[in-house]
């Protein structure tokens, strides 16, 4: 038990509050205060060595309320610990960054919920037919340099950007130049629960130089050279805003549904072809083809 009579702090002369009184002022439970103490979020001003009773300064009430409110918005304890150690604007900035992440995740879940409502109401395919126009295109043989990685959906945007930049630099420097649009190939599902792998590919002009580059770079990362045979793609073109997960799932399913209706056969893994410069395009600009290799 921590509730005993008030006592004075020997150094300041200010009265110390028992954990019960302090909890009442802070609008927290003694159990929560003990947890905050164990985690280093809010240490008592004094702990009796013989009884283990905790005592607090009155000016710790505001800190306790702050920790409690951060918990109420769902901030993880580790993030709270880092935030409360910061001063003024830095702490406010840390909270703003955390909340921006919360809102981004909520927006993603809201979009996914809308997508799932369409699926569950059995109107999904009809909506996709109206939203996405599917076409076919014949693609000639290409020489690819590539990097592969197992990763989850939230890791994709950063990895696609970084790996594509590395490959394009290598293509210009060592492989005779870039010969077409970068492609991201999904050899297995990439989602919050499945980690692919995904393969970032850049077509190059000099096959022999690309093989030599892959032999050297492959020892440092999962870099390869391969020949992509000529093939036909069924694809739909999407905007920058639609590239985000889970919006892009609707585009993939629209192409799959069209392929089935046309009596075609999927002959390889699905892919994204990025034909526009990402940094200079806006949300409504078309930037990517979502595609499946197909044949009759």
Sum this structure up briefly.
It is built from nine helices and 13 strands.
Major sheet description: 9 strands, antiparallel
N→C terminal distance? 78 Å
Runs with pLDDT <50, length 5+?
Answer: none
What's the total number of strands? 13
Gross CATH architecture of the largest domain: Alpha-Beta Barrel
Descriptive overview:
- Helix content is 42%, strand content 23%.
- With 296 residues, the protein is of the alpha+beta class.
- The chain is built from nine helices and 13 strands.
- The mean pLDDT is 88.
- The strands form two sheets. Strands 5, 6, 7, 8, 9, 10, 11, 12 and 13 form a nine-stranded antiparallel β-sheet that branches. It has a four-stranded antiparallel β-sheet with strand order 1-2-4-3.
- The protein has helices spanning 19-26, 30-38, 61-72, 77-84, 88-120, 124-131, 156-174, 207-217, 247-261, and strands spanning 7-8, 15-18, 46-47, 54-56, 134-139, 142-149, 183-186, 198-204, 223-228, 231-239, 265-266, 271-274, 286-295.
- Helix 1 crosses helix 3 and helix 6 (124-131) packs across helix 9 (247-261).
- The protein folds into three domains: 7-85, Multidrug-efflux Transporter Regulator, Chain: A, Domain 2, CATH 1.10.1660; 90-122; 131-295, Alpha-Beta Barrel (Multidrug-efflux Transporter 1 Regulator Bmrr, Chain A).
- Strand 1 (7-8) and strand 2 (15-18) form a beta hairpin.
- The longest helix is centred in the middle third of the chain and has 33 residues, at 88-120.
- The protein is elongated.
Element layout with pairings:
Elements: E1 7-8, E2 15-18, H1 19-26, H2 30-38, E3 46-47, E4 54-56, H3 61-72, H4 77-84, H5 88-120, H6 124-131, E5 134-139, E6 142-149, H7 156-174, E7 183-186, E8 198-204, H8 207-217, E9 223-228, E10 231-239, H9 247-261, E11 265-266, E12 271-274, E13 286-295
Antiparallel strand pairs: 1-2, 2-4, 3-4, 5-10, 6-8, 6-9, 7-8, 7-12, 10-13, 11-13, 12-13
Helix pairs in contact: 1-3, 6-9
